[in-house]
Amino acid sequence: MSIEGLQVDRLACVRGDRQLFSEVSFQLSAGEWMHLQGDNGTGKTSLMRILCGLAPAAAGEVRWAGQPILQSADTYRAEMLYLGHTLSLKDDLSALENLQFEAAVSGESLDAHRAQEVLGSLGLRGREHLPIRVLSQGQKRRVALARLLTSRARLWILDEPFVALDPGAVSQLVDLLGQHVSAGGMALYTSHQTVPMAGTGRHYRLTA
To answer: Which of 59, 74, 114, 170 stands the most exposed, by the fewest C-beta atoms within 10 Å?
Structure first.
């Protein structure tokens, strides 16, 4: 029988001479969300980067559908969408261009009409052609979050996605997460905020 979803087995992370965490194990299956919690410095972002294959673990293994992600990197990248806390937007490109560029990098096709429609639905109507550098922090975060509406990825890994969003945008993002999970997707996110998430999920506290 095939194993679905994300499996995390006894992960450990060391930075310099300090161990941030060890023995981290959990599973995230289709139709589930997980809120990763922990005090500053416990390694939440480091864990996220390990789960995305962007940083090595000191010990343990991350598997997708039963296969180590380092051995099935292309398949995993096609199924996973990572939005980091730093957003990784290109300042000289417009919101529209950033969204189309990110889609192309992921091997997806996104025409300008659909991109404008998505940006407009997130409160960016009239700002689609402005360079990222002139947008507010909240508007930049909305541009990054627009990828959630255009990506076909089943697994969303989101680092502090609610930062700099106003209450209306927070509510909209909660709805997006709920819709994704209810459609059989998976969402793993960090947040210092507690938001009312629908569907099946749990909270996981990371400790040193």
So the answer is: 74
pTM score, two decimals?
Answer: 0.94
Q: pLDDT tens-digit profile of 75-92?
A: 999 999 999 988 889 999
93-131 residue pLDDT tens: 999 999 999 999 888 889 999 999 999 999 999 999 999
pLDDT at 107: 87
Distance CA(153)–CA(78), nearest Å, equals: 6
Share of the chain above pLDDT 90, in %: 87
Contact 25, 10 (CB under 8 A): yes
